[in-house]
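@channel anyone free to eyeball this complex?
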Amino acid sequence: MALFPLTSNVEGDFVLQLLPVDTENTMDEVSAAAAYHSVGRRVKARPGHILRVRKQGATEPLPRTMTVAQAGFKPTECIEIIWEKAS
Amino acid sequence: MALLNRMDWYDLARTTNWTPTYVKEEELFPPQLAGDFGIPMEKWESYDEPYKQTYPEYVKVQREKDAGAYSVKAALERSEIFEKSDPGWLSVMKAHYGAIARGEYAAATAEARMMRFSKAPGMRNMATMGCMDEIRHGQIQLYFPHEHVSKDRQFDWAFKAYSTNEWGMIASRHFFDDIMMTRDAISVGIMLTFAFETGFTNMQFLGLAADAAEAGDHTFASLISSVQTDESRHAQIGGPLLQILIENGKKDEAQRRVDVSFWRAWKLFSVLTGPMMDYYTPLEHRKQSFKEFMQEWIVSQFERAIEDLGLSKPWYWDKFLADLDTQHHGMHLGVWYWRPTVWWNPAAGVTPAERDWLEQKYPGWNDTWGQCWDVIIDNLVEGNMAATYPETLPMICNMSNLPINYTPGNGWDVRDYPLEYNGRLYHFSSEVDRWVFEQEPERYAGHMSLVDRFLAGQIQPMDLNGALAYMGLAPGECGDDAHGYKWVEIYKQLRKKAG
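replying in thread with the prediction:
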């Protein structure tokens, strides 16, 4: 367990933000942490949607239970937090 | 006694090059300070300044300019501009003085380097006057705001800002240190006088003067117009210099310096002047939009200037033109949202009437930046103030040192432009900022952005209070909404009506 800095880019927001997470956080926990700084502040919540994490430029999101350590991010790497219709 | 006409003796009098015998040429003009472009001394003597002025003429004209600006100030001191102005306009003044005044003093050092180390005698003469210009600009822009310091501590930042680690000042110093404090005399001539002053000071000092006059602030209007008359003279140092470089096969080196400086200046103006013109200046006093000013004062004039000289438009010109529609809206939104971290009170500028104006000037504004403002306004209307303040830092570009932002909402295109260099991951707000870094990576690699400093533990405690202390923002100086959120009442009424 260790504090790990990422850069979050939440879909619909205007700015990249510093996002401190833990290496053991899952992608769902990462997206929730990113949402805290964007959704309800400058981005409207989207009912019926969840937020998924993907690497910048990737088309597919990372598995929801994957941890930060498993994802192999570099410190301060920019991740995209994307809305996805809840199934 | 009959006096010779100036043009009968000017060229001879300022031909002050000689052949050194006690020292070598490179000792008289060390390459690090003079510029090492491999151009022989005699070529520099062909430098033909377009604006020829002698010292007695300079003193006479400058005295009149000072007398004019100071007289207007003295005459209007009882006009209660501080008490009567819209708070948004006061914010324009505070932001301007803090960002500009002591940078002018720094520019005097840069002009002094050209004055001493340029190999072109005509350039040295122009830079002598340019140096005195910049001292005047520093002094006058510290003196004018001083009358307001006792009424409002934020005006003290006219002097204070340049010595602090406030984020905007880190960005400003990074730019000015790059283009004028750490370059040789030739590069300063290109990057400061040609790319920055020819390109941009018209915008800050004439465009804004038009808004000031409309807002009834004739003191500020006459001050900054007076400053610009000097800028437009000494900005011409760069033109003949570029001609010599191009004639001697150094076009690529010259072009690169223009491209670097112009882009970096644009970024700074997008956070400083853009919000002032499109959000802080009261709606009824806006002469033109920021984009329209940019197109008139910068795009057309600068395009003509570079083409006249035989240079090319910067390679990123299309991207720059596209940015005129977008970049400063995000900068403004960021400054307002992180408002405790600036030394002025940002005016939100998003009442329904102002939004109509923004939509008209920037079609699609409501569908993009407006989407973010909708959420902020909802929170303000509902009294959820906590959600209108930040709890983390924005990611900062390692070139502009400004928050990395682009278009939000339905036009969302925000992204990072990363670069790994010597094992460190750098972040940039555009491919152009990254390109600037790549031109001279060792020049920039060691600098730490505010976020880098935060992560390195230099900001303690690691929260907003720690950040404010690190930035030197004392109580009474931190920014808040310029109008004390009174504008939110309009939305409350609208909601009531809508039921």
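from a first look: Chain A has one domain: 3-85.
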